[in-house]
Structure formats: C-alpha cells, structure tokens
Amino acid sequence: MSRIRGRSAxxxxxxxxxxxxxxxxxxxxxxxxxxLAMISVMGTLIWxxxxxxxxxxxxxxxxxTNWQATFGSREEGxxxxxxxxxxxxxxxxxxxxxxxxxxxxxxxxxxxxxxxxTVISRPRD
Length: 125
Prior knowledge:
Layout: E1 3-4, E2 7-8, H1 17-50, E3 55-63, E4 66-73, E5 77-84, E6 87-93, E7 96-102, E8 109-115, E9 118-121
Antiparallel strand pairs: 1-2, 3-6, 3-8, 4-5, 4-7, 8-9
C-alpha cells in the first residue's frame, strides 16, 4: 500500500492524487495567510506600544493686550481663538502646538507650553 506523507492511500477513501495535492496546497495557503495575519497583528501591536501616550497640554497666555491663538493637538484638531488679556487652554493628545500673535502694537505677550505639569516651552527672559 502506498503512503502519502504519513497517510496511507486508504485514508483518503477514493480521493485521487490530484485532489490530495490540491487539498494540501489549500491548507498550505491558509497556513501562510494565517501566519501573515498574525505577524501583521503583532507588528501593529508593537508599533502601537511604541507610540507616546496621551498627555495633557496647557497653553498659558500671559498678556495685557489683544491676541489671536491657533492651538490644538493631532488628536483633537486645531482651533482659532481671539482673546484679550491672560488665559489658558487645555489640549489632550500625543503632540500639541500653539501659535499666538499679538494684535496690537502696545502691551506684552508671553506663551508658556506645559505638558503633564512640566513646562516644556517658555519665552526667554
């Protein structure tokens, strides 16, 4: 009795050699697809774990005049605010940014950027 990779010909009960090869090829194709899917999922999880975590940013504006601010984060998007005097805004995200412009010739304007309680950007004195 002939044996095909550990199985005897009677294990296939009337299935011809061509059909046996097709079934093996299908099982191999499925194994490859499942393996690639698992590798892809693992790669995505590793990439996700390397991303910086969400942080709380505070954009603190110190001023005695009119100003316009554009600020936000990658996750929340950006917004534009026209204001006067001192104010602060909270933004959540992995990356945040702010641009503040004085809208008059008089007065002063200082911007301080704080991430999770730590000052990361301030004007030079």
